[in-house]
Amino acid sequence: RDQLLASHPDLPARVAAIRESAVAALPELVREAKESLEGKLAKVYAAQDAGEAAAIIGGLLKGKRVARSFSNTLAEIGFDRILADSGSSVTLTRLEEIVGAEVAQASAGHPHLATLGLTPRQIADSLQRFTGAAGQDIDRLKELAAAKIKENILASDFGATGANAIVAENGVLVLIEDEGNVRAVSNLPYRHIAVVGIEKINRSAEDAMAIMQAAAIYGA
Known about the structure:
By secondary structure, the protein is α/β, with parallel strands linked by helices. It has helices at residues 2-7, 11-24, 26-39, 50-61, 72-76, 79-85, 95-102, 120-131, 138-154, 181-187, 205-218; strands spanning 65-68, 89-92, 158-161, 165-167, 172-174, 191-194, 201-202.
């Protein structure tokens, strides 16, 4: 990390300038991003607040089977509650969340927090319940859990994710890979829904990549 910081001394200033430029041109970038996404046959919905987002999502996913990756944006709007209220089922795809759910230790923060303080025995027991397998060691249980997660994703009607950036000029969604579930969730189900704040819109791919690089180095 120290080497990366030394190699990119101007990155913080560059990212700050990118953010300021995007905020100044936000209405234009929102319009451009919408046109670019629709040009790729994506359907774009604009919500003014979390309540409107919930209504849109609930209507789109009513009664559907949905696999979701972990996303702060989805957590902030109460995505799982929205789906439960609309009669939809939610498949978790991140192992820490699944373990936390199996031991009723869900966390309001990062999924890693849901497994803090659990013993290896508790984790193994939770994976046995999730996979339906008994008498296996922890490594085998993790393999079985990964296979079941993929099976559940393939059986879903929608894959739901957030996004780390939207590139306005070409309608690209930037998704940072995390344990394989973001790629699987966005590609394996027939339909993909991404819930993204307008602060994630960038003018160009270069701008988006600079922000992703800063996030990787600084842990933002």
